[in-house]
Amino acid sequence: MIRLSACLAALVLASCASPGASTTPTTPVAQAEDPYLWLEEVEGERALAWVEQQNARSLPVLENDARYQGLLNAALEVAQSRDRLATGQVRGGYLYNFWQDPDHVRGIWRRTRLADYAANRPRWETVLDIDALARTENANWVYQGADCDPSGTRCMISLSNGGLDASTDREFDLTTRRFVDGGFVVPEAKSNLGWLDRDTLLVATNWGEGSLTESGYPFVLKAWRRGTPLSSATEIMRGEASDVSISVSTFEDESGDHIAIAVEGETFFETVYSLISAEGPVRITLPRKSTIHDFFNDRLIVTLEEAWTIGGQTYPSGSLLALPLSHATLAAPRIEVVFTPNARQSIEDVEATRDAILVAGFDNVRGRLQRFTFSGGQWRGEQIALPPTGVVSLAGASTSESQAFATFEDFLTPPTLYALNGARAASVRSLPAQFDASPYVTEQFEATSADGTRVPYFVVRRRDTPMSGQNPTLLYAYGGFQLSQTPSYNAYIGRLWLDQGGTYVLANIRGGGEFGPDWHAAGLLTNRQRIYDDFYAVERDLVERRITSPRRLGISGRSNGGLLMGVMLNQHPEMVNAAIIGSPLLDMLRYDQLLAGASWVGEYGSPNVPEQRAFLEQITAYQNLRPGENFPTVFIYTSTKDDRVHPGHARKYGARLEELGVPFLYYENTDGGHSANANLREAARRRTLEYMYLTQQLID
Q: Would you list the DSSP string of 357-406?
């Protein structure tokens, strides 16, 4: 356990003395052959034996604690509660929803008529029972979504083996509620599909040797006609092996016009769009950092992730634009500005109804919902009145319907479903509380990072919490891929942490999208130290406000957030006494060679580019792991079936700690994919393990 409250020695005092000082390591890691490469063999006998040994060693430490069963019971109540909002897709007069509960552990895909749903009187019809299907076929199916044809009667159902990103896609008839005999079937792969018409499927999949990118995704798009073998599909577009992927998006506007757009991901953030026409794909005139959200009033609705200068005019990063389809492929298209956020605003989601564009976003990380209409050649916007303290999310919209749905929630307020009719929002259903929020309060503070940037963060605590510096506190952050961290209701946090005497903190550090694309871009590539400086600034601010102390502070992050944890443990171990490292990236010198890692070069940089490698050598958590005697006992978790972030990252980090004689806890679920949540029971178990660990490290 860590005890570095005085920074231990003069060497560390230099970094503790000035909160404004950046702490980038200056000495690149020495290169040596990796002794733990064998742990990258996902199903290797030796590797799985190591996993079994670590699970057998670690789980009893947590599960044999007398408090564990009580926490697990609470977690199961949360996971299996039927008091959840059934949101989903609006289509053809129905709302479609995927639902899991104790009776449907794998889940059911179901629907209800839109009018009944809006009146809070849903009459659900089961469309597809995944539990029954898995039993019938003796398969470990996990539902991953459905994509339906323009008529709305045939859908491609994506089914994953145990939660892998790779899926098997099979054609399903909504009328008969059966898979179509002799219908479209795309074998297991990281495929992407879209309907050109009822009898033509656009398919990007594994076509055999030489058809996948370095990231393991397809780069060849073909058209597959009904009644013919998949092998006879006609190529319509080909990217490059160096791309991230090629995929297809389909849209319908309010008049029923159906379009298909090929999406060539040159990097994770740079995309070339092409309209698929009878003559073949035609490139759409857009900057590479942009996103097409919808098709409305014969216009493509687009957000910019970078400033765009065209036709003598510059459109700021973060802008929401409309491009008439008839102009979209011209060298100088007509561009209409729908909305331009300011520096402290963001756009999170955009969806079209029959009558308007709905835009959900943030204003200083507080939820906002706007509605934009087009008439007389002008776009007009208005704000839809919803509570301003949390997060507003779109929860069902379609260009075939005027009505849409949204939800509101905050840290202490369970989600409420609203029906949107024009600019009016009517409450449909509010969920009952899953924990008593009356003792708690939410506050928003700002820390000052090394370069003077103001970094907001939220604190959820008991109202009567003394500012003594002794409050057990969990700090969570992500800091990457323009993913915003939102003030959302989380009953696991309420039941398993706040109710146990803990304080919860959510940091909105750079790398996310809370203030738009520029907030993300500020931490890209070799600028990534800003993200870590932001997190350190929040840690220090929590201590300076006497909310907590290093003895009582724990940190948590998963995936890219797992990398954040690894870096912070190397740079500032003196600040914490616990760290949860979930499904992490940790070996940043090999990440691009593992599973989907090559697709993230646009975020982290390439180990093959000298300047970028030099920076990666400074931050790579695995190779730089040199814990001192006060390094905290960390909790690492991953999944064997994670085919996005390779479990080898977590395994090798654990093996290195073991080699160094540093105590740690390790849990690898053999199911569940990247989210490590194959089913509700496993989701509850994983969270119980996390909070049992935090209780032992921070409360005891």
A: EEEEEEESSSEEEEEEEEETTEEEEEE----SSSEEEE----TT-S-EEE
Q: Count of CB atoms within 10 A of residue 10's CB?
A: 7
Exactly one of 191, 215, 290, 559 is catalytic; name it.
Answer: 559
pLDDT digits (tens, 9 = 90+) for 254-282: 888 899 999 999 988 899 999 998 888 99
Nearest CA-CA partner of 412 in 386, 431, 384, 393? 431
Q: What residues have CB less than 8 Å from 323, skipping those under 6 apart?
A: 284, 285, 286, 299, 300, 302, 333, 334, 335, 336
CA distance linking residue 699 with residue 680, whole number of Å: 27
**What value does the mean pLDDT take over residues 221-250?**
94
Which pLDDT belongs to residue 6?
Answer: 28
Backbone angles phi, psi at 8, to 5 degrees: 65, -50
- Mean of pLDDT values over 399-405: 93
CA 376 to chain centre: 39
Amino acid identity of 71? L
Residue 680: Cβ within 10 Å count: 21
Are 657 and 625 in contact, with CB atoms under 8 Å apart? yes
CB neighbour class for 38 (10 Å; exposed up to 12, middle 13-18, buried from 19): middle
- CA atoms of 663 and 675, how far apart (whole Å): 25
- Tens digits of per-residue pLDDT, 652-699? 999 999 999 999 999 999 755 554 455 778 889 999 999 999 999 999
For residue range 146-205, list pLDDT tens digits in order. Answer: 999 998 899 999 999 988 889 999 999 999 999 999 999 999 999 999 999 999 999 999
| pLDDT score recorded for residue 5 | 30
CA-based torsion, 458, 466, 695, 102: positive or negative: negative
In the chain, pLDDT over 90 holds for what percent of residues?
85
Residue 160's H or E segment, with its range, is strand 154-161
Question: In a 10 Å sphere around its CB, with 0-12 CB exposed, 13-18 middle and 19+ buried, how is residue 335 labelled?
Answer: buried
Sheet holding 245-252, edge to edge: 245-252, 258-265, 271-277, 280-283
Task: Record the tokens describing residue 57, joined without a space.
Answer: 């060693």
DSSP 8-state secondary structure symbol assigned to residue 512: B
Which tens digits make up the pLDDT trace of 342-351? 999 999 999 9
- 559 flagged as catalytic: yes
Instruction: Point out which residues pair with 108 in neighbouring strands.
Output: 99, 129
Q: Which of 184, 176, 221 is nearest to 200 (CA)?
A: 184
Has residue 295 got a pLDDT over 80? yes
CA dihedral over 279, 285, 289, 291, signed as positive or negative: negative
Q: Which of 138, 131, 137 is nearest to 101 (CA)?
A: 131
- For residues 444 and 461, give the distance between their C-alpha atoms in angstroms, rounded to a whole number: 12
Separation CA 668–CA 653 (nearest Å): 13
* Residue of 293, 646, 649, 674 with catalytic role: 674
What are the C-alpha distances in Å from 36 to residues 1, 32, 47, 622?
A: 26, 11, 10, 11
Measured CA distances, 467 to 197, 438, 503, 554 (Å): 63, 19, 12, 17
CB 323 within 8 A of CB 296: no
Cβ neighbourhood burial of 376 (10 Å; 0-12, 13-18, 19+): exposed
674 included as an active-site residue = yes
Is 122 in a helix, a strand, or coil? coil
